[in-house]
Amino acid sequence: MDGDDLGSIEEFTLLLRDGELVDFRPVRQNDKETLQKGMLALSSKSRYFRFFSPILKLPATQLQNFTEIDHQNHVAWIALAHNEPEDRGLGIARFIRMQNQPEIAEFGVVVIDSYQQRSLGTILLEVLLRMASIKGIEILRGYVLPDNTVMSNWLGRLGAVGVYEDGVYRMDLNVSDDLFSSKCRKVLTDSGLKT
Length: 195
Description:
The chain is of the alpha+beta class. Helix content is 30%, strand content 29%. The protein has helices at 32-40, 44-51, 60-67, 120-134, 149-157, 182-190; strands at 12-15, 21-26, 74-81, 89-98, 101-111, 139-144, 161-165, 168-174. An eight-stranded mixed beta sheet has the order 1-2-3-4-5-6-8-7, with helices on both faces. The longest helix has 15 residues, at 120-134.
């Protein structure tokens, strides 16, 4: 399903902590080039932390998997530079429901380096949490490399429980309205992301 078929769920614009406006919307099939350009805006360290590999470019099959999604079991939202004609991607967040445990979804968040530590990742995670709540998902599960202490500490502060297995931390974050900031909750609710 294309992002345009999401009914009442619309895109929205929100101020980052430093006052910059950023546009948020569901990922669409035509976002392949935006995602590929976003990969180039990531440092090798950020790519490694997100993909567990120094991957420079997404293969065509992965681009297809990342953009041709159903917005039910696979949900993805993208953050874009406000009012830029080329839709410059700043970050993306997604979850994919686990087939054998439908109340759990594996998630990932990535933000280009120049927008890290500016509240963008937090907003993207809040969107995922709201969407997970709507879709009946109880736990968002992320996998974090041991040397990615920024991510593991951040998720830990949000209440995620980490278990070390197979060389990575499995971080389980309970889906809860308590995690939404009041500012983001209002924007998401006004945008149609209601539970």
